Amino acid sequence: MAEKNLSGDVYYPPNGIVKNAHIKDWDELNARAHDDYQGFWASIAEELHWYKKWDAVLDDSGKPFYKWFVGGRTNIVHSCLDRHTEGAHRNKLALIWEGEDGAFQSYSYFALLRETKRFANVLKSLGVRKGDRVTLYMGRIPELAIGMLACARIGAMHSVVYGGFSVEALHERLEDSHSKVLIVSDGAYQRGKIVPLKDIADEALQRAATVESVLVVRRTGEPINMESGRDMWYHELAKLPIANVDCPCEEMDAEDPLFLLYTSGTTGKPKAILHTHGGYMVGTYATLKYVFDIQEQDRYWCAADPGWITGHSYIVYGPLLNGATNFMYEGAPTYPYPNRWWQMIEKYGINILYTAPTAIRGLMRFGENWPNRHDLSSLRLLGSVGEPINPEAWKWYHRVIGGGRCPIMDTWWQTETGMFMITPMPCVALKPGSGTRPFPGIEMDIYNEEGKPVGANEEGYLVIKTPWPAMLRTIYGDPDRYVEQYWSKYEGVYMTGDSAKRDEDGYYWVIGRVDDVIKVSGYRLGTAEIESALVSHHDIAEAAVIGLPHDVKGNVIHAFVILRAGAAPGEHFIEELRQHVGHEVGPIAKPEHIEIVDSLPKTRSGKIMRRVLKAQALGEDPGNLSTLEE
Ligand code: PRX
User: Fold this and answer.
1) What residue ranges of the chain have pLDDT lower than 70?
2) Mutation probe of ligand 1 site: the residue of 266, 274, 413, 431 with most atoms within 8 A of C-beta
3) What's the alpha-carbon Rg for the chain, to the nearest Å?
4) Which of 183, 214, 326, 358 is close enough to 231 for a disulfide, judged by CB 3.0 to 4.6 Å?
5) What is the pTM assigned to this prediction?
């Protein structure tokens, strides 16, 4: 590509950064990957640890149930920890952690391996075996990462539930995954307050039957209820002889499950996306290495939560696979003051910062003086993920935080993709608001309703045309839904659920979801989850929710509810309803507005037409109403 002649607002990569980058020539890499994408991924897989090498890179005989590195034997944790402690990285810092209250912990690769083994032996003592499911519901503390790694080490699947979710969300995920053990922290610090995670878990456990043991990690030290026979303190078990540090990695098949992660889809309950040891390892390793250009001395900070895919791939697995030094922060970006992040970047000499547009917009509101008081010159690269970044926020991030010298990696991907799919690399010319082009080896396109590629600058459905190693393998327990949801709109092509455009330079511009998924502050929520929380309130007969644009959060939730006959809402009814949703799903799901209505627009088959509600709320033309019931 003749990058010198790109159209629009273009930021060319700084020479100093390209000179030392792993990938200096995107076109060359892309051409190589395009010619033989299986060979391309195999050459990257060679850099990782395998007990036995694969017989075939890809088996597509049962598509869309693709298999990668077939016949290979591995365990992702070996490549994350053991192989580094065997070499020069033994005493290198793997994790630096700061608590919201100023607490500090750090782990070398050796120490992280030791604590992972100890944790794994504690899980074994609770009867956890290969193939079992373990749910983790914790704040952002090192034990969350250690717990995940411990599960993977012994071949159990972890299912992390974001600590911002609440009773019903946790209950549903525990039940659907049939988790044997729940790992929970006594509480989490957030904006100077304590989120009572163990209390929430107790309520969820009253509704769920499968959990046999609850392992409680102490963080806050606040008094909590411990149910005898079910609940055990981790720090007490960790002192017992069973919690020794003799715990070899379970040798796994490349296609054995690594984890489940629940995410919201088009309809119904959140679904468990399943990722595997082999392909996920190769995909997250390669993408982080090339996109965030991990160098030996780097201190890398992904400010997401491990409870979402960004945290799985790019806080826990990707950085450790790369032998990087990872920074993790427990709390809110503005606590106690809006300079908390900038202070930590200066203090720890962070080189790479990866966050979400909503965080950037939120911090932008406090003005430039807060970051300007700090030395942010250690930063080399910046990143963005979770929703489209508006050019204004992009430019602020680039100029104020990156000092005009740090390229921004705007990475488009999903829980399902496991790894970056559309993304720049440091050697690529950037356009604010575009994630540039698909990662080498990945063919994507934008289709119209009939499955034909659209022309330049025309909007259509974003699709993926080649399989990729970190792709989801199925929806756990519901393979039909996997096929239906992702592979049924167009033959042999993965449907992302997003709409996008491609400009005359081949740069992709993601517009947003085309289904019933709403992104609030970058968090993925489904209309169905929030609606079912609303109707679980005794005064509500029916509910419909939509997302409406918001300057900082990207979208906010707007709910329409129909009252039950005889309901007599009091003065604080709307606030009570919001609290109810917060209690059931989580604070992030609370509707910003709730309107009481007499009826909802439906199709003749009874489906709520959210598009009509949205157009009405925005004062826009609702379009074709021929299917409307009344
Ligand atoms: O709509 C896209 C948006 O986030 C969705 C995936 O959400 P989730 O599975 O929670 O994963 C988020 C983190 C990977 C996508 O379908 N999205 C994600 N990244 C971007 C984005 N939209 C625009 N630009 C991005 N960089």
Assistant:
1) 1-4, 630
2) 413
3) 24
4) 214
5) 0.97
